[in-house]
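If your schedule permits, I should be very grateful for your opinion on a structural question. The matter concerns a single protein, recorded as an amino acid sequence and a row of backbone structure tokens. Could you please explain, in whatever detail you think fit, how the structure tokens follow from the sequence? I set the record out below, with my sincere thanks for your time.

——
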Amino acid sequence: MKLATDVTHCDDLMKALEGFRGYGGPVLRRWGVTLASRLAAGSRLLVAGNGGSAAQAQHLTAELVGRYRDDRPAFSALALHADTSSTTAIANDYGVQEIFARQVAAHGRAGDVLALLSTSGSSANLLVAAVAAHRLGLTVWALTGPAPNPLARAADEALCVEAATSATVQELHLVAVHMLCESFDEAVERRAEADRRNWSLFAEEDA
């Protein structure tokens, strides 16, 4: 039995984080820019996960509907697992594997983004949701544990966190959520600044 003073967990996190800085950053910057463009055009982000991954997914939607750091407009983001009445009704009537796919069918539109979080990358209900999303023309992103895994293969793009334990994967998923929000906010601000410059030029020409 490990003592409470054991810092192995911290050591594992630091080791995994060091590698994550290299391979995670470019993906999350690209996702943030894409998401800012899609949501500004009226699309929405749908997110789902199970257990701890559900908490991380809901954290992401809260940052987008509310704010991450500085004040900015609200954007449409839905955590599919958060509607307990829908999820339990779907599970009861159609089976637990359909709880997210059914909601994707209800809420998803072509151009939307579906982000799926899973430490194992093998959750059946997320895999079924990915299939439903592709059928409707959504873009599917997966945030998973180590590759290869089924969810990464089912997604249009995946960020697979290399870590030894599920706990460390989840901790790096939270880092990923914040990095994505940082990139998103920067892209939103760049678009707003460009709009302000264009409006200023238009006003000068019209004067």
Remarks:
- Strands lie at 45-49, 77-79, 113-118, 139-144, 157-160.
- The mean pLDDT is 93.
